[in-house]
Amino acid sequence: MRKELQLSLSVTLLLVCGFLYQFTLKSSCLFCLPSFKSHQGLEALLSHRRGIVFLETSERMEPPHLVSCSVESAAKIYPEWPVVFFMKGLTDSTLMPSNSTYPAFSFLSAIDNVFLFPLDMKRLFEDTPLFSWYNQINASAERNWLHISSDASRLAIIWKYGGIYMDTDVISIRPIPEENFLAAQASRYSSNGVFGFLPHHPFLWECMENFVEHYNSDIWGNQGPELMTRMLRVWCKLEDFQEVSDLRCLNISFLHPQRFYPISYREWRRYYEVWDTDPSFNDSYALHLWNHMNQEGRAVIRGSNTLVENLYRKHCPRTYRDLIQGPEGSVTGELGPGNK
C-alpha cells in the first residue's frame, strides 16, 4: 500500500511539474523567457523557405498595438508558417517581466507559430554586400538610422532565408500566392513594405550592392522604395497596370497597388473614419495602414465603428480584445521603423 501511494504521488508530481512547465511557457510567469531561439534555430526554422518576417530596429521591447495586430494577423492567415519577429532590444539572455508590464510582448510570444529573435545586424550582414558598409557607418550621425537599418536588414534576411517581409503596420487578410514578388505602391513605383523572394535571389543581392553604391541617408526612401524601384527598372521594362492585373518580368511578379495599397498614402486617414459600408478588399492580400503618416496620433478606439477598428476586430481579435480601449482610455499608434 505504501509503495502504491509513493508511486501515485510520484506520477502526480510529474504531471504537476509538466503542467507548470507548459504554463510558464504560455502564460504570465514572473520572469518568462520569450520564445526566441538560437541563431542555429533560426536557420532551421526558416529552412523551408516560407516564413513571414517582421522587424523592430529600435530598442523598444513592448510592441504597440498596431505591431501586435500585424503579427497576429499574419500568424492567423499563415498558420502553418513560422512568423518571425526580429527585435533589436532582445538578446539571447533577455529576461522579461510579467505580462502586466509587457502585455503585447507576452501575447505575441505565446502564439504557437510566432517566434521572437534578437536582431544582430553585424552577424546578419556577414557574407553580404552590406557588411563593409555597416562596419564603416556611424549610426549615431545618421538622420534616419532606424529606418535605414530596417531597410538594410530586410534585404539581408530575405536574401539569406527567403520568405515574405512585411512592415509592422501591414494587416494580413488573405494568403499571398506568389514566391518572388514586389508590391507596387503606385503605377511603375515599388514599395519595400511588403516583398517576398526565395533564398539567394539575385535581385536582392543586386539591391544590396546598389544600397551601398548609392547610399545617401539624406534622401528619404533612397535605401527603401526608391531602391526597389530603380532596381526593378534595371531588371524590367515597367508598364502601367491594366485593370487589376499583376505584371510579370523574368521570374518576378510586380503586384498591383490594390494588393496592399488599396488606400493610398494621401488618403491614410480613411482608415480612421466611419464608412457607410466597409470595403470588401476582395483584390487585396494585406492592407498597409501608413502609420508613418499618422503624426497626429489618430487612435483605434473600441466602439468607434471606424474602418480600422473593424479590421482589428476581424483580423487580429486577440489584440483588439486585450489591447484596445474605449474613448476615455484610447491607445494611439506609435511610430516605428517598420511603420512606413
UniProtKB/TrEMBL annotation:
Annotated Gene3D superfamilies: 3.90.550.20
- Compartments reported by the entry: Golgi apparatus membrane
Tell me, what's a Pfam family for it?
Gb3_synth
Q: Name one GO molecular function term.
A: acetylglucosaminyltransferase activity
Q: Record keywords: Phosphoprotein included?
A: no
Supply the alphabetized keyword list.
Glycosyltransferase, Golgi apparatus, Membrane, Transferase
Q: Which InterPro entries match?
A: A1-4-GlycosylTfrase_dom, Glycosyltransf_32, GlycoTrfase_DXD_sugar-bd_CS, Nucleotide-diphossugar_trans
Q: Can the keyword Glycosyltransferase be found in this entry's annotation?
A: yes
Domain of life according to the entry: Eukaryota
Under the cellular component aspect of Gene Ontology, which terms does the record hold?
A: Golgi membrane
- Boundaries of each Alpha 1,4-glycosyltransferase domain copy? 197-321
Query: According to Swiss-Prot or TrEMBL, what is its membrane topology?
Result: Single-pass type II membrane protein
Its BP terms in the Gene Ontology are:
epithelial cell proliferation; negative regulation of epithelial cell proliferation; protein O-linked glycosylation
What family does this chain come from, according to its entry?
Belongs to the glycosyltransferase 32 family.
Name it: A4GNT isoform 1
Q: Which gene encodes it?
A: A4GNT
